[in-house]
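Lay summary. Proteins are chains of building blocks that fold into shapes, and those shapes determine what they do. In this project we predict the shape from the chain. Here is one chain we studied, written as its sequence of building blocks.
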Amino acid sequence: MKNTFILTTLAALFLVSTSCQGAVTDKQMNVVFILADDLGYGALSCYGATGLATPACDRLAKEGMRFTDAHSPSAVCSPSRYAILTGRYTWRSWLKNWVLFEQHPLLIDTQRPTMGKLFQKAGYKTGCIGKWHLGWGTELNTDFSGEVKPGPLEVGLDSFFGVPHSHNSGKPHRVFMRDRRIVNLKPGLKYNSKEAMNEY
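And here is the predicted shape, written in a compact code that computers can read:
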């Protein structure tokens, strides 16, 4: 991996992966940011866990940077993701408590500075793999049948692959998306139709 910024989420992990291009020099470091839902400070052996071994995470810690005094902006996922990407408390947005639901629009104002936009400006290629859970579209009940925006690509990410909401979403939203579209949704099908859901 050369000159890359990565933020990850899988199931309960949030990953953004980025690779540098353009004016970035070889001296600029790759960045991988992994956000894991429900992962405590002592859950990794590199932080002292003894009940299980986490060799891959331990290697990342050894070859990268360990944080020993970090604080979560929230106890749940949507507000934490919002705060990390924007540097703001979520309650300064329209989400005053809890998390987003499938029918909610994009929580991040597309004009707002984000971590992704800052990395893009510095010459990095940015991306996110895993759980988004920050809303899509501009209205309630966004139609996911075709191209869906605004979403991750409008707030500073060059690419996205993952689940649009949470891993316990209802059947129509239990899908994977690549950039702005549901993966393998046949053209012309409504995303929440019986025929489409039989394909998922």
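What the prediction tells us: The longest helix spans residues 77-86.
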